[in-house]
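Tutorial handout. Part one gives the primary structure; part two gives the three-dimensional structure as tokens.
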Amino acid sequence: MRHSLVAWVMVPVLWGQACWAQQPASPAEPNDFKRASTNIVGLQYPQVNSARQASFRIYAPDARSIRVSLANTVLTKGEDGFWTGVTLPLDPGLHYYTINIDGHEWLTWRRHLREFAPLLFKD
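Part two.
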């Protein structure tokens, strides 16, 4: 009898701790995205909004998974071959990031990106 009482007390306590450990829901995204001022000339992505979220749109029809290192954002593939995703709010300032396509990291620093960016960040 005593063991069942302990179980009835411990289950809610443990369940409550598991619920507290969940990530908070992401805030509503304002739909005022604009191209980042640091983008390569002529490219529309990545974009940022007033909530300091970054939006990515990458063309990779044959990819199986794409992740951006900013807030470890996983992109979702659309039927048109574009992968899209929005980060959680970021701290103000310039951010360096990598794009992981099928396990391969792509550097996005301007000097490395200039040649292949038009292929990835198509409009």
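Part three, for discussion. Confidence is low (pLDDT under 50) at residues 3-25. Strands lie at 34-35, 47-48, 54-59, 66-68, 73-74, 76-77, 82-86, 98-101, 104-107.
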